[in-house]
Write a structure and sequence with these properties.
Order of helices and strands of chain B: HHHHHHEEEEEEEHEEHHHH
Mean pLDDT of chain B: 94
Largest sheet of chain A: 4 strands, mixed
CATH architecture of the largest domain in chain B: Up-down Bundle
Largest interface: A-B, 56 and 50 residues
CATH topology of the largest domain in chain A: Butyryl-CoA Dehydrogenase, subunit A, domain 3
Strand content of chain A: 5-15%
Shape of chain A: globular
Oligomer: heterodimer
Helix content of chain B: 40-55%
Low-confidence stretches of chain B: none
CATH class of the largest domain in chain B: Mainly Alpha
Radius of gyration of chain A: 21 Å
Helix content of chain A: 40-55%
CATH class of the largest domain in chain A: Mainly Alpha
Distance between the termini of chain A: 37 Å
Number of domains of chain B: 3
Mean pLDDT of chain A: 95
Strand order of the largest sheet of chain B: 1-3-4-7
CATH superfamily of the largest domain in chain B: Butyryl-CoA Dehydrogenase, subunit A, domain 3
Strand order of the largest sheet of chain A: 1-4-5-8
CATH architecture of the largest domain in chain A: Up-down Bundle
């Protein structure tokens, strides 16, 4: 057991820290889930790309640095430590791209990965439908073969599509074999949103931003080269994407370490009020719990990355990670609101906004009830 | 960076697990409730033969010259088996403490502890500074290591031999624990180490007990999962019901995150860093995870789990004893709070090499 980073990793950390110190915007950008904020965040994404920080773990030929998972974790720690903006291109970078690496053809890798890294192709996720949320295999959007068009005609409706109103591509599941049921006969499509037959309607979200969208597709022609993985085998590809979403690539420890550090700073500011009984005396314990949970999440991630470095795959344990970080994120923000007391509703420093975002965590990427089913059935082996 | 046990460490833990499956089945644990010393007859000798008691002892004193990192996986297994043996007190606390003190004391006591000729009891936590210590195995021990505010007025470690103490038996909720109040007087002659050594010994006890708690919790979860697969109600295994699944998944989540924290506690003891902080984090996590595993196990078993004929209570009651024997989870979180919240800002920067 060795919990030290190597000198090369330490040097990498220093390089990231120096760049972040010199480049992270001094004041926070407007929310990336509004049209104005999205544009500002895109400028930042392109600044990251130009400096080679957009996708550090990817091979250089696709716009990355070929960094190890350890260096990627270090990058993330420094990124969040510096208070850098949220990644509005995260769906493409961290969810779709791992699936392209695993299932894409050489042509698809060459075409999509560099443009995702450069934030030219901005992907949103087309999983949920009005009648298929937790029950993803119940989707009814369909793809009908059209040989004359050299591909498929897509029809259906996707919903809760985060940043759908600002993106130019969608990845999602469509039924290609109407004679098969549930998770069989689905295919994974990459769909340009500027095509004929696509309508995107923004939907206001709990936190007040237009972060959601409904995407309507009517006879949208998509060519064969935009099917990721084999036709009718889309479920497998989708599961690799959800594993990324639940686990490591979407929510690295650095994000929660930074938030927990901010929470300890907030506690110091409010300590007198807590000790005087003006605020709940239990907040001290809640703060230290949040800090310990971020610490435990980091250590657990170190263990997971060690196993992945040894060649193991991240399977159903990704559900442990999703349960842990999403519940940590909610309790961390609830504790911050408690420390702010009556000032919380004024939301001067973003904790209320962050709280509202954290409340989505136990719902997206498969509700935490679904995650507990996955743990029970696939890790513990309980009957379905 | 490599956060995983070595192949040798895994092999050692597996060997101990095999031994305990043979020599310490639930019936043996149940039997220990009725034996005078609360132990499984002959089991300590087997552990001595395997070298478990001397894992952390210097080779010159008959030990293996290894460390807490080698012992921690073994302790998880002794917890899994609910082995009623003083592995924490002797192997994880007394032996390394005496080796640290060195000199004649170490030369006298460590070899005889490692060879099983002598027995030790450890009372570093309870009763310090107020009243008599309540110490496990105090009546049977040849030597006692006790924490006290000594003649210096500061916290110290004292070594007293059996004839210098008077013990009064106290019953534990866990019938295999033989507790006794120890009546004794610290003197300058009994003092063997100061505050710092006392702190390190407590930190070792915390990490070791946390490892045992993880094992106890894991065993209860495993047994309960098996039970939920077999037990049928409404014509189906109860493990197919979502309410039951969610209870068990939540218990599994706690244990999943407790183990890395416990391993890191051992790492810090060996390689340095804030041992009080990291051992307290280990204990706080393990105590809550094991407690929840017990609560879940009882609820999922239903009435059968509430009987003493069924084995579950053997594990559950051990957890109830150990989860506060070295300070409860809230006490340990407060230790962390003092370091994380009350020290100067930035002192707990995760990215510092020292804390990595």
């Amino acid at each position: 057991m060795d919990l030290r980073f190597s000198s090369s990793e330490d040097a990498f950390r220093a390089e990231v820290r120096a760049w972040m110190d010199g480049n992270v915007p001094a004041s926070p950008l407007p929310s990336g889930d509004t049209a104005e904020g999205f544009a500002a965040h895109l400028d930042w994404e392109r600044q990251l790309f130009d400096a080679g920080w957009a996708a550090v773990s990817w091979p250089e030929e696709y716009g990355g640095r070929g960094a190890t998972l350890w260096k990627w974790l270090i990058f993330e720690e420094e990124y969040w430590r510096a208070g850098a903006p949220n990644r509005v291109n995260q769906n493409g970078l961290f969810l779709l791209a791992p699936s392209i690496f695993a299932f894409g053809t050489d042509e698809q890798k060459a075409r999509f990965l560099p443009k995702i890294a450069a934030s030219e192709y901005l992907f949103c996720q087309g999983w949920s439908e009005p009648n298929a949320g937790s029950d993803l295999a119940g989707i009814t959007s369909r793809a009908v073969r059209d040989d004359a068009a050299g591909g498929w005609r897509l029809t259906g409706q996707k919903t809760w599509t985060t940043r759908g109103a600002f993106c130019n591509w969608l990845f999602g599941l469509f039924r290609t074999d109407p004679d098969q049921e549930r998770h069989r006969g689905l295919s994974y499509f990459l769909v340009p949103l500027d095509g004929e037959g696509v309508t995107v309607r923004p939907v206001g979200r709990l936190d007040g931003d237009d972060g959601f969208a409904e995407v309507f597709l009517e006879d949208v022609v998509v060519t064969d080269d935009l099917v990721l993985g084999e036709v009718d085998q889309g479920w497998r590809v989708a599961m690799s994407t959800t594993s990324s979403e639940r686990g490591l690539s979407l929510r690295s420890p650095g994000r929660f370490m930074a938030a927990a550090t901010q929470l300890t700073a907030l506690y110091r500011e409010q300590r007198d009020a807590v000790e005087a009984g003006l605020l709940d005396p239990g907040l001290r314990d809640a703060v230290v719990r949040a800090w310990m949970d971020a610490d435990a999440y980091r250590l657990h991630t170190f263990r997971t990355v060690t196993r992945m470095t040894d060649g193991e795959e991240l399977g159903a344990e990704a559900s442990f990670m999703k349960l842990f970080w999403s519940e940590l994120d909610v309790s961390l923000h609830e504790t911050a609101l408690g420390l702010l007391g009556p000032e919380a509703e004024l939301d001067v420093d973003g904790w209320m906004k962050g709280y509202q975002f954290s409340l989505a965590g136990p719902i997206y990427a498969g509700t935490n009830e679904i995650q507990r089913n996955v743990v029970a059935e696939r890790v513990l082996g309980l009957p379905r | 960076m490599r956060f995983a046990p070595t192949d040798d460490q895994i092999a050692l833990a597996d060997a101990v697990s095999d031994l305990l499956m043979r020599e310490c089945p639930p019936d043996a644990v149940r039997g220990a409730w009725e034996t005078p010393d609360g132990r499984v007859p002959g089991l300590w000798d087997r552990l001595v033969e395997m070298g478990v008691v001397g894992i952390c002892a210097a080779e010159e004193h008959g030990g293996l010259g290894l460390s807490m990192l080698d012992l921690v996986g073994v302790l998880v297994e002794t917890g899994r088996a609910a082995a009623p043996e003083p592995v924490v007190d002797v192997a994880a606390v007394a032996v390394p403490l005496l080796d640290d003190v060195g000199g004649e004391l170490a030369g006298t006591w460590v070899p005889s502890l490692v060879s099983g000729e002598a027995s030790a009891a450890v009372g570093l936590e309870r009763g310090v500074g107020a009243g008599n210590a309540v110490v496990e195995n105090a009546a049977a021990a040849d030597v006692l290591l006790l924490g006290a505010t000594g003649v210096s007025g500061d916290a110290e470690v004292h070594l007293v031999e059996a004839e210098a103490v008077t013990t009064t038996d106290r019953a534990s909720v866990d019938g295999s624990r033989r507790l006794a109040e120890v009546d004794w007087e610290p003197t300058s002659a009994t003092r063997i180490a100061g505050r710092e050594a006392l702190g390190v010994a407590r930190d070792r006890g915390n990490v070791a007990t946390a490892a045992v708690l993880v094992g106890l919790g894991a065993a209860m979860l495993e047994r309960t999962v098996e039970y939920a697969k077999e037990r049928e109600q409404f014509g189906k295994p109860i493990g197919s019901f979502q309410a039951v699944k969610h209870h068990l998944a939540t218990a599994a989540l706690g244990l999943e995150y407790a183990r890395p924290v416990v391993d890191r506690g051992a790492y810090t003891l060996v390689y340095g860093g804030d041992t009080r902080r990291d051992s307290s984090i280990a204990m706080a996590y393990a105590a809550e995870a094991a407690h929840l595993a017990g609560r879940t196990a009882l609820q999922v078993h239903g009435a059968i789990g509430y009987t003493v004929e069924y084995d579950l209570h053997l594990w559950m009651k051990r957890v109830w004893a150990l989860e506060s024997a070295w300070g409860d989870a809230a006490f340990h979180r407060e230790q962390v709070a003092r370091r994380v919240l009350d020290s100067s800002p930035g002192a707990q920067d995760w990215t510092d090499k020292e804390h990595a």
